[in-house]
Amino acid sequence: MAFVLIHGASFGANCWDELIPHLGAEALAVDLPGRGTRAEVDLGTVTLADCADVVREDVEAKDLRDVVLVGHSFAGVTIPRVLDLIPDRIRHVVLVSAVVPPDRSRVLDQIDPGVRGLVEQSIADGVYHQTREGAAAMLCNDMDEATAASTLDRLADDSAALLSEAVNLSGYKREIPRTYVHLTRDQCYVEELQQRSIELLRPNVIDLDTGHMAMISAPEKLAAVLNAIHG
């Protein structure tokens, strides 16, 4: 049994570095295309199908089964595609403040208007580039100065096309248990939007009193939730 961890937008697999030592089972953190170990991939070419395919590739390469699949933020639109690719390998899905807009809609249309303006200003030539200042306001409200600096040092460019691609949520129709970790101090994927995602998914819900990057700001708390689900 293992955890498979999927990062959100503007980060790579190293966003899970603080969390992994607290997990009670093997953990595989996946780099989506254009980030980390896959930095050679042109971000301008990346699709949601590509993101799901590299998760499948990494899981199959290690022959992982009975997986607790954990997705943060933007990974909420990658996970259903993973569920359609390797459903027999997934035991439980955990969505950490995950973006789950209505099926066939665009993520960009569903995010908070205040945040949307910051996102749109950060797009140029098909690449989404967050500034440290903008990211600090959205992501680091529950962090001390050193933790915030460490988080911002890990910012990565992302594919702007992923924000405007129509999502396919068919994988969420599968009978695979799921839990939504609701982050009560999140200033990025704000309360109203988390509640919309919860309404769409009808998952078990667990509250954590953290900001958006709980795996960095409160790794022991998030690990306790994940370890309890893993069993």
Automatic annotation (TrEMBL):
Keywords, comma-separated and alphabetical: Hydrolase
Pfam families: Abhydrolase_6
InterPro entries: AB_hydrolase_1, AB_hydrolase_fold, Sec-Metab_Biosynth_Hydrolase
Domain AB hydrolase-1: 3-224
Entry annotated with the keyword Ion transport: no
GO molecular function annotations of the record: hydrolase activity
Transmembrane segments: none
Protein name in UniProt: Alpha/beta hydrolase
